[in-house]
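pinging the channel bc i need a second pair of eyes. not urgent but kinda urgent?? the chain im working w is below, pasted from the shared doc
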Amino acid sequence: MSNTGTPPVAERIVYDDFQKVDIRVGTIVEAAVFPEARKPAYKLLIDFGPEIGLRKSSAQITRNYTTDELVGRQVAAVVNFPPRQIGPLMSEVLTLGFPDDAGEVMLIGPDRPVPNGGRLF
């Protein structure tokens, strides 16, 4: 890492490598506190449209978001990683964000509504 806390640019890849990561947009339909997680987190249920359906995710976003403000929000997530057991929850997607000045997650998503399930390109 550099002295600004920003990691260096990753090694160069080709477009086919990018295509292997399936990043989709979905709408959070449920958000709940996840007390069993080691670090403060929420359990999210995200609707990715009819082709992918509802998927669960654990997200360490408690510093910047409340459960109430998450419901209805569109987010980006990787949908083709293998599921990962996090405490009693099987997390099925990786919800994406960027670090704020304190290193806490700020979610990413479209600035206007788009159909659930759309793939990032």
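so Residues 67 and 91 are 17 Å apart (CA to CA). and Residues 22-107 form a domain with the OB fold (Dihydrolipoamide Acetyltransferase, E2P) fold (CATH 2.40.50.140). — does that match what u expected or am i reading it wrong
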